[in-house]
Amino acid sequence: MYVCLxxxxxxxxxxxxxxxxxRTMRQLARQTGCSSNCGRCAVTAAEVLGQATAQGSxxxxxxxxxxxxxxx
Length: 72
What we know:
This protein is mainly alpha-helical. The chain contains three helices and two strands, in the order ββααα. It is globular and about 30 Å long. The N and C termini lie far apart (about 45 Å).
Protein backbone atom coordinates (compact mmCIF):
# COMPACT_ATOMS: atom_id res chain seq x y z
CA MET A 1 0.00 0.00 0.00
CA TYR A 2 1.14 3.54 -0.60
CA VAL A 3 2.13 5.29 2.60
CA CYS A 4 3.49 8.52 1.11
CA LEU A 5 1.76 9.71 -2.04
CA UNK A 6 4.05 12.71 -2.50
CA UNK A 7 7.15 10.53 -2.82
CA UNK A 8 5.43 7.27 -3.90
CA UNK A 9 6.73 5.34 -0.88
CA UNK A 10 5.02 2.03 -0.12
CA UNK A 11 4.96 -0.11 3.00
CA UNK A 12 7.23 -2.53 1.13
CA UNK A 13 9.72 0.31 0.60
CA UNK A 14 9.71 0.99 4.33
CA UNK A 15 10.26 -2.70 5.14
CA UNK A 16 13.14 -2.74 2.65
CA UNK A 17 14.63 0.38 4.26
CA UNK A 18 14.45 -1.31 7.69
CA UNK A 19 16.21 -4.33 6.22
CA UNK A 20 18.92 -1.92 5.13
CA UNK A 21 19.36 -0.52 8.63
CA UNK A 22 16.82 2.31 8.91
CA ARG A 23 15.47 2.61 12.47
CA THR A 24 14.16 6.18 12.82
CA MET A 25 11.78 8.47 10.95
CA ARG A 26 14.66 10.84 10.24
CA GLN A 27 16.62 8.02 8.60
CA LEU A 28 13.51 6.93 6.69
CA ALA A 29 12.93 10.46 5.39
CA ARG A 30 16.55 10.74 4.28
CA GLN A 31 16.53 7.40 2.50
CA THR A 32 13.06 7.39 0.93
CA GLY A 33 11.79 10.96 1.11
CA CYS A 34 8.79 9.72 3.09
CA SER A 35 7.13 12.49 5.16
CA SER A 36 9.56 15.10 3.82
CA ASN A 37 7.00 16.98 1.72
CA CYS A 38 3.55 17.62 3.21
CA GLY A 39 3.88 15.37 6.27
CA ARG A 40 0.40 13.84 6.11
CA CYS A 41 1.90 10.35 5.96
CA ALA A 42 4.07 10.74 9.08
CA VAL A 43 1.76 8.89 11.47
CA THR A 44 1.18 5.96 9.11
CA ALA A 45 4.87 5.87 8.15
CA ALA A 46 5.85 5.74 11.83
CA GLU A 47 3.40 2.87 12.43
CA VAL A 48 4.75 0.88 9.48
CA LEU A 49 8.32 1.65 10.53
CA GLY A 50 7.57 0.42 14.05
CA GLN A 51 5.98 -2.77 12.77
CA ALA A 52 8.83 -3.43 10.35
CA THR A 53 11.42 -2.80 13.06
CA ALA A 54 9.61 -5.11 15.49
CA GLN A 55 9.35 -7.85 12.87
CA GLY A 56 13.03 -7.51 12.11
CA SER A 57 13.92 -7.95 15.77
CA UNK A 58 11.53 -10.87 16.22
CA UNK A 59 9.14 -9.04 18.53
CA UNK A 60 6.15 -9.77 16.33
CA UNK A 61 5.54 -13.40 15.56
CA UNK A 62 3.58 -15.04 12.84
CA UNK A 63 -0.14 -14.89 13.44
CA UNK A 64 -1.23 -18.02 15.15
CA UNK A 65 -4.38 -19.99 14.68
CA UNK A 66 -6.71 -19.60 17.63
CA UNK A 67 -6.81 -22.60 19.89
CA UNK A 68 -9.95 -24.60 20.31
CA UNK A 69 -12.60 -22.69 22.23
CA UNK A 70 -13.03 -23.63 25.84
CA UNK A 71 -16.01 -25.77 26.55
CA UNK A 72 -18.38 -24.77 29.29
